[in-house]
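Hey L., structure's done. Input below.
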Amino acid sequence: MRTFICVLQASFEVKNHLLFIPIFYIISEINTTGEYIINIYILNGPPGSGKDTIADRLAEVLNNAAFQTVVWRAAFKDELYRATYDWLCGTSELSLGKVVGDLMAVTNCTFEDFKAACEDRVLKEAKVIPVGIHFNLASNPKDFGHKCWSPRMCLQHVSENLAKPRYGSDIFGVKALAAAKAMEENGLEAIVYSDGGFVEEIEYMAKHYPTTVINVYRDGYTFEGDSRDYVTEGKLVKEFHRLENNGLISAAVNRALLIMQE
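Output:
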């Protein structure tokens, strides 16, 4: 049984974008025992497609008082940021070693600094980290052989060459689920993930919660050089939807809200 929030059309000014939306979106479901079931919405698109901005706006709009909902904006990569930073600092069981760890300490690079660099379109591509080993990842051949890595290359290496071979391909789905379970007690009704790109992570979440994948497309942006890809099918995912982002963020957000209503 689905639960609705039914109000007339309303407008919200979010980050200088005025959104006009009919407010009757499905946020959560109720099972046969009368318990709420959290709905999961995963945005899946290449870098630059707008998925992070769309996720931010969705959370802002749906957490507006008019909706009376509790929506969490999250990312599978949150745990990867921490794992990669610890690896660089030499404090992880996947540890790189002392050289770069000393560099991170000398430069006073905090976790917040590293995360900010990873989320900056320019900084995350800057090859400024002297890892000292040849980069080698099949899904990113253009950076093969470099000894000085960008933050993005570090994330890719820790994810695909270290964490997943050791802990399983769904490791970041496992960690995301644990975080979601911890939020249930806070009245959480939906989670919007901004960075789905691996079927194993998505399917792991779909084992536990109704999961909808929204594939975000934008002209000129692809997964080239990225270990992620579009996920358009899965055994457990409830629905897949295509969202075209033409650069007008308000239109993309409205389309995403309509998908959440379906």
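The chain has eight helices and eleven strands. The chain has a mean pLDDT of 81.

-- N.
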